[in-house]
Amino acid sequence: MALVLPPNVTEKTFQKALDAFAGVLGRQWVLATDEDRGTYMDIYAPGDADAHIPSAAVGPQSAEEIQAIVRIANEYKIPLWPISRGKNLGYGAAAPRMTGTVVLDLGRMKRIIEVNEKFGYCLIEPGVGFFDLFNHLQENKIPLWMSVPANAWGSVVGNALERGYGYTPYGDNTRNICGMEVVLPNGELLRTGTGAMSNSPCWQLFKYGYGPSWDQLFVQSNFGIVTKLGMWLMPEPEATLGLNIQLPNPDDVGWAVDALAPLRMNGVLQQSPSIGNSLRVAASQSQRSQWYQGDGAMPDDVLRQVLNKFNLGWWGIALRLYGYDEVNEAHARIIKDAFAKYTKQEFQVVKWHRGDPIENSGAGVPSTNALQIVNWRGGRGGHIGFSPVLPPTSEHVLKQFHSTKKRYEEIGIDYYGSFTLLDRHTTNVNMMIYDRDDAAMTAKVRALFKVLVADAAKEGYSEYRTHLTFMDDVAHTFDFNNHALLRLNETVKDALDPNGILAPGKQGIWPKAFRGRQA
Amino acid sequence: MNSKMDFGPVGCIARLLAIAVMGGCIGAGIGVARSAAAQGKAAGDSAQKLEEGKKLFHERCGYCHLAGGTGTFMLGQRLGKDRALLEARTDLSVEYIKKITRVGINSMPPHTRIEVPDSELDLIAAFLTRPASARGNAGSSGGAHE
Residues A118, A95: one domain? Predict the structure, then answer.
């Protein structure tokens, strides 16, 4: 990919900045060839990868090197886009929001600084992947469990900072954050919580510190670069009990949410189950052309044949109870009674006890197998997710499900969705899978995405996270009092980052220097 | 299949490149007279580099390319199960491995020089293109993700 300079920067100034970066990092860790730029592009972009081209990438190995890079960036007005491991797949991967931005790749910062078994936490750097931490816990026989997302190729820190989630009782990954070290846009180093004391033994034990608590300021934001993160880990339980069930009909998702939401809120169910349509299983095991080669979305009768072949219902649910046998059994009875009001189907029960193989336990075991779905349409596959947050009731869920499915069918792609139940909301992930070699298809997907954002906004639903291309669209749905929240974000941005060097445009927050660049 | 690049059609080229490249890479049998001690040391160095390459392959590529991994699954779908496991393949070339690592293929994303530096990629490619004499049991097993 040929060089595209940052806005308002000459090639001479850009080269001076690269030389200065190399002076700090060594030439080896300043990546600026055409091939290098290509490696930071959004692999799964829905036809618009050229809107997010980096000019270069730099790879620091310490907070001190990041401070030096940030100071140089301020001097030469070079925008930086921090990434942890660059695996934000479906949301833009390693690519920056604004073309010409230099990627600040923290992938070399891979230290697991501390794992504390007694208090159940770790302190890690951004380059530590889910596999790295999992292997560390396993190899050292540390009885702490992780929460991992469906595709676990990425960074533990990066995922938590983007509000990713897993499926254990510690599944809300952002909630597990306890203490950060951050480089601010002016190069200053900060520690949050009680880490702001120089000698606190509670940095990873107490989240709030004293006075305002700033951790959320650095989540899904462009206000600082997180260089260390404390994360709470779950003590290995004595036993788990799994309850799996297939629901045969599309509208079954409504009563399932009504049955589960009160149990999720009162703590009978402590993990966040995903009610997913079974196309996701079919898409990970087969290709669409094996079942259907006609135009338009796969017809319902063909989908039914696919589901029958895999012995699946329209939706699948895997619930998991964690703790002690007696308590799990009691909670399982409560869940079964709640479901018995709606269905005569029985749960498949899976039991695990400490010492059994971890694969069947319900622990977070990293895998990349979820990526197999991108091969559903063939060609160079891609995927993007539209994920609004709804109240967990059948009324909201069914309306949103039918509305989204109809929109998918209008452009001829197959509905692929799930509803994950958290304490008091459900996150509705709608995956769009496409063939990137089919320009017409990707154009339709891009258009559909904007329609879905608008449809959801009419109902008062926002996304919990989105792809680079749609960050402005989603930010603008937060419209109370003439977008007062966005104006606050911009005020904070300009105060912390007057030169606008840190991740311009992330989450729709543009610094003064680049405001108005929304595409 | 509508792929622009595929392990399949390039296989023949890959085999030719492998023959051309492997001699220099592995450092064995290029007809230069050397002392027995030097030859022994060279063989030892080569074996060590292959071990390093194997370890790096498992660490950097094993997320997807060991038995049961998503890359193995997808290659199996496209090329057949006998060509699904990369470390058991004998039709890959150093150049091809390096290129695919940097540009990606189908649903496989490209890998940056920070994730896999050139020096590591050299060792990984040498391991994946090791000669038959260096194969044996080691390196052809899959195993779980490491």
Answer: no
The residue range of the domain holding A178 is: 112-235
Q: Write down the pTM of the prediction.
A: 0.91
Q: A226 and A105 in contact (C-beta within 8 Å)?
A: no
To the nearest 10°, the Cα dihedral for A496, A501, A503, A509? Answer: 50
Average pLDDT, chain A: 96
The per-residue pLDDT for range A49-94, each reduced to its tens digit, is 899 999 999 999 999 999 999 999 999 999 999 999 999 999 999 9
Do residues A124 and A156 touch, judged by C-beta distance below 8 A?
Answer: yes
Report H helices in chain B.
7-26, 36-56, 62-65, 70-79, 94-103, 118-128
Q: Contact B146/A153, CB-based, under 8 Å?
A: no
Whether the pLDDT of residue B72 is over 70: the answer is: yes
> Which long-range contacts (C-beta less than 8 Å, at least 24 apart) are formed by A188-197?
A188/A67, A189/A63, A189/A67, A189/A227, A190/A224, A192/A218, A193/A230, A195/A230
Mean pLDDT, range A467-480, rounded to an integer: 97
Contact B114 A135 (CB under 8 A): no
| Residue A283, both tokens | 């898409």
The CATH number given to whatever domain includes residue A46 is 3.30.43.10
A119 and A220 share a domain? yes
| Catalytic annotation present for A465 | yes
Q: What is the mean pLDDT of residues A347-376?
A: 94
Q: Taking each helix axis as running N to C, give the angle between helix B118-128 and helix B7-26, from 0 to 180 degrees, rounded to the nearest 10.
A: 100
Element (H, E) at A421: strand A417-421
Q: Is B131 helix (H, G, I), strand (E, B) or coil?
A: coil
Residues 57-86 of B with CB under 8 A from A: 63-64, 68-70, 73-74, 77
* A403-450: pLDDT as tens digits: 999 999 999 999 999 999 999 999 999 999 999 999 999 999 999 999
**Residue A510 has which token pair?**
């543009």
Q: What is the pairing mode between strands A102-105 and A80-83?
A: parallel
Q: Are A161 and A224 in contact (CB under 8 A)?
A: no
* SS3 at position B128: helix
Tokens 């700090």 belong to which residue? A24
A120 with A99, same domain: the answer is no
Q: Which of A59, A153, A374 sits opposite B107 (nearest CB)?
A: A374
Measured between CB atoms, does A43 come within 8 Å of chain B? yes
Say whether A415 is catalytic: no
Chain B residues in contact with A437 (beta carbon < 8 A)? 2-4
Residue of A73, A95, A43 whose CA lies nearest to A436 = A43
Q: Tell me the two tokens of residue A511.
A: 């610094």
C-alpha pair distances (Å), B79 with each of A283, A435, B4, B138, B144? 18, 19, 15, 23, 22
Determine whether A135 is exposed, middle or buried from the number of CB atoms within 10 Å of its CB (0-12, 13-18, 19+): middle
- Pair A123, A98 in one domain: no
Nearest to A384 by CA among A24, A35, A42, A122: A42
Residue A269 to residue A263: CA distance in whole angstroms: 6
Going from the N-terminus, what domains does chain B have, and what CATH number goes with each?
50-146 (1.10.760.10)
Alpha helices for A84-190 (secondary structure H) = 130-139, 156-161
ipTM: 0.93
Q: Which residues, 6 or more positions from B29, have their beta carbon under 8 angstroms from its beta carbon?
A: B23
Give A171's contacts (C-beta < 8 A, 6+ positions apart): A147, A165, A271, A272, A422
For an interface test with B, the pick among A372, A376, A377, A435 (most B C-beta atoms closer than 10 Å) comes out as A372
